[in-house]
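ARCHIVE CARD
Drawer: 12
Card no.: 0347
Subject: one protein chain, sequence and derived structure
Cross-reference: see card 0346
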Amino acid sequence: MDDIINATDEKDQSIAELEENWKRALADYKNLERRVSEEKDVLIKFANFVFIERLIPVLDNLETLATHVKDGGLTLIVKQLTDLLKDDGVEEVRVLGEEFDPSEMEASETVEGDDGKVVEVVRKGYKMQDKILRPARVKVGKRKE
């Protein structure tokens, strides 16, 4: 009789151990699924970031062309591309008249003007989800003494 009770206890213990291992494996799998999903999201965001970074010079060229060639179709294309980028969270870094901020801007030269203020934008800067895609290139004011 003691043998039967011992065998039953061993089986109960074995079942409890297997159940515990199963729960641990299930938790590990769920964690792995979550990590893979997060890594996939990061990879997609990085790929979008890189693609948009390569697309910005095209927008620059189209905007430059639109200033020289007055064409309604070209204006529409520039607006569509700008709206498309805006929909993906890309926004122009607004710097004109602001204090020079090296985290968002590059100074191409200093010119006469208010000390430390952006006087002119040489090349637009862009950010996406609070990350700088490209810093704005600006001319910074300096008072004549």
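Annotation on reverse: The radius of gyration is 30 Å. The mean pLDDT is 92.
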